[in-house]
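Section 5: illustrative case.
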């Protein structure tokens, strides 16, 4: 199975991270960064900006890569269904307020100190948000 490249658009504004509640597997129902598959011929930064706009209506400028993660989606029998390479891109907010659309159930700004206690998060979300706060300077 060939790994699937995808982006995560990481936006920090006023000490809060923009998160979406996923509608589809893997991680359906969990909260994480807006994102999705990179389209054929699409540049990495353009993919982050597009996915962010499609899922939340937020306009932002992609700045740089924060982290690269493997996301392995396994079936109950342990077999591999999908292998995603997730590229977390720091994006600078330009305009808009979050409105869930596309494959997101909900979208909102969440304070980092409230993330773990208030929402069921996808793996590595808090760690990447903390990296983003440091990288946003």
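Designed sequence:
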């Amino acid at each position: 199975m060939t790994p699937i490249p995808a982006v995560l658009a990481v936006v920090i504004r006023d000490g809060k991270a923009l998160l979406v509640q996923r509608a589809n597997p893997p991680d359906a129902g969990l909260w994480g960064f807006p994102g999705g598959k990179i389209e054929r011929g699409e540049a990495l930064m353009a993919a982050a900006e597009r996915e962010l706009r499609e899922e939340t209506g937020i306009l932002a400028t992609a700045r740089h890569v924060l982290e690269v993660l493997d996301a392995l989606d396994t079936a109950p029998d342990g077999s591999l269904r999908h292998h995603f390479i997730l590229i977390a891109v720091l994006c600078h907010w330009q305009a808009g307020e979050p409105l869930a659309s596309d494959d997101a159930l909900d979208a909102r700004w969440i304070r980092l100190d409230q993330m773990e206690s208030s929402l069921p998060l996808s793996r590595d979300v808090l760690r990447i948000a903390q990296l983003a706060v440091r990288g946003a300077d």
